[in-house]
Design goal:
0% strand, single chain, mainly alpha, 10 helices
């Protein structure tokens, strides 16, 4: 009876620890997103971003050859973001007087993925070094000026870093599986391979 109560208490503590970590990562994501999305249209488009905007506009007419030297993954995200911003501006944005500019819509996918990077970064660092190092690493990424600045531009490196870290974590998790978890290990290897494939498609 005493052993059962001790096990239940340990499970409750474990569950609460997991919840605290989820809340910690959610807070870091929101903080990082706020820093990355604040006044995204404050500066004008760079030459590289302008080429991406021209490519996205060409996609509306079925021309996918514009700016072909860059992978399509980021440009497709920008395409979806620009169309979502146009829908927002024509509905809720007009009513709330909160329209999204082209610069904001073009850069928003990177701001989101840049903020989301704290998740695979924290998971990978925790798997390798423990949660204390992982929390410090994630906090530095969420608040780091260089990371924030780069995630506020429509450059492919943000997506590459996100999927690279995700692939590393899934591969590390797959290698740590017990021998009897062969099916789960195979699925994790497959997911890791997909993440690395998206990394290649990003840059």
């Amino acid at each position: 009876m005493i052993a059962e109560r001790g096990t239940e208490a340990w499970l409750r503590r474990l569950d609460w620890t997991r919840k605290k970590r989820i809340l910690f990562l959610a807070a870091l994501f929101l903080l990082g997103l706020g820093l990355r999305a604040y006044h995204l249209d404050r500066s004008g488009l760079s030459e590289d971003e302008t080429h991406k905007l021209f490519a996205v506009r060409s996609y509306d007419h079925g021309d996918f050859a514009v700016n072909a030297e860059h992978p399509m993954l980021m440009k497709m995200l920008c395409f979806a973001s620009l169309h979502s911003a146009a829908f927002w501006n024509g509905s809720a944005g007009r009513a709330l007087d909160l329209n999204l500019s082209e610069e904001t819509a073009l850069r928003l996918p990177n701001a989101i993925f840049g903020a989301l990077t704290v998740i695979p970064l924290c998971l990978l660092a925790e798997a390798l070094f423990g949660f204390r190092v992982a929390s410090i690493t994630s906090l530095l990424w969420a608040l780091g000026l260089n990371a924030v600045w780069f995630n506020r531009t429509a450059k492919e490196d943000t997506l590459m870093v996100f999927f690279m870290l995700l692939g590393y974590y899934l591969y590390t998790l797959a290698k740590s599986q017990a021998p009897e978890e062969a099916d789960r290990q195979a699925r994790l290897y497959g997911l890791g391979g997909a993440a690395f494939g998206l990394m290649v498609a990003s840059k």
